[in-house]
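Q: Okay, next protein. This is Imidazolonepropionase-like amidohydrolase from Sphingobium xenophagum. I've checked the sequence twice, so it should be correct. Can you predict the 3D structure?
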Amino acid sequence: MSDQNHPLPPFALSLSKGLAERSRSHFARLSGRLRLPSARTVIAGLLFAISTPALAQSLAITGATLAIGDGSEPIRNGTVVITAGKVTAAGAGIAIPPGTKTIDAAGKWVTPGLVSGFSRVGLVEVPAVNETNDASARSPFSAAIDVAPAINPLANPVAISRTAGITRAVVVPSTGTGIFAGQGAVVDLGADMNPITKPRAFQYVEMGEEGAKDAGGSRPAAILTFKTMLREAQEYAKAPASYDGRSKDALLNRIDAEALVPVVTGAMPLMVHVESGRDILAVLALRQDFPALKLILAGAAEGWMVAPQIAAAKVPVIAGGLDDLPSSFEKLAATQSNVGRMVKAGVAVSMGLMDRDEGLQLRLATQQAGNIVALNKVPGATGLSWGQALRTISSAPAEAMGLGDRIGSLKAGRAGDVVLWDGDPLEMTSAPLAVWIDGIAQPLDNRQTKLRDRYATPEEGELPKAYSW
């Protein structure tokens, strides 16, 4: 944070000026289309926001088709008001406080910032290049690994995802030497160096086929390993000083045992990757031995087969959208109606990128949700309403992470994560015109847009410089 007592260093000031300069053409177009007060005013506001990230302007966006993100259907001629970085009101007939800057968004759409329910954004930049891939490790540690320090807010996929309207993401580690991968985080995709919304938000474990492989080759081995590790964590919790983790029979060292204590007590959610119906039931049955487990199912390609049991257990699911091909034995009953059928059965379903470039392609979220809506037109298929589909990529993943009262919707008191779209956001031809995170306007350029602009109109002579600030 910068103020009169903490002036910006020259590099940060140069960066702020560069971001403002690169955003000028975009905001000039935005001003003309949306009748903003002036492009100069918006740029000044953006520069101020970058310089002092703890502060945000009061803003009202009016006249839009407004989606709250809570599962309700869009509201015509809606208004959202953001004050001090938070949503203070959203809906129809909202009074605008005097002195609030106003954007006339007639003919446009407004939604909460989208939340990716499963990703590795910021952990992975080029998956095949080890130096840019921090998703997993061959390490003596497992459950204690914390992904938060490795999140890179300057990674290209962060800016690309932000340009597509993604403002928050659940970041999930990958397993390295065992079934437990470590502690995931919830991050924001703002153009700053403070991306962590919630560190150590959950523990991640592999079951099913992947868990069987990590445990030595069978599902029984994975389940026994899981139970043994959690019992060792319980032993550590009872007597930390006497637990050394060095016994030849111990599966957990002290650090990993300590990290699993919040899981066995229910203080930390446990995200379990599992796909088949039988494996889902086996995971739900683990509560018989560990009743405090706060489970989240990830994947659940065959979740529709056991949806009543999932709903009765009140366990949220993060699914992968239209996963309708039997790409593995644990997905033989995969169907494009999986999400719709689970929601119909009362399961709280979010969507994320399961095995689909989860480090890079968060922008596919709107396509995932739009496809689920389109299923309603397919005879015999089960889809979702527009509002339900948007919920799977906004408030539902926020609620699964225990952050439903902070992010994921435009309800009063939530973070000022707002996206202004040029059309229906679940249509592939639509794109964001402006993005705010915590009430702060974000730049909408990235490496891809820079390359596009560089080569869009080739001229004779030397090519333009690759980078200019």
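A: Here is a summary of the prediction. The longest strand covers residues 196-206. The CA atoms of residues 125 and 132 lie 5 Å apart.
Q: Noted. On to the next one.
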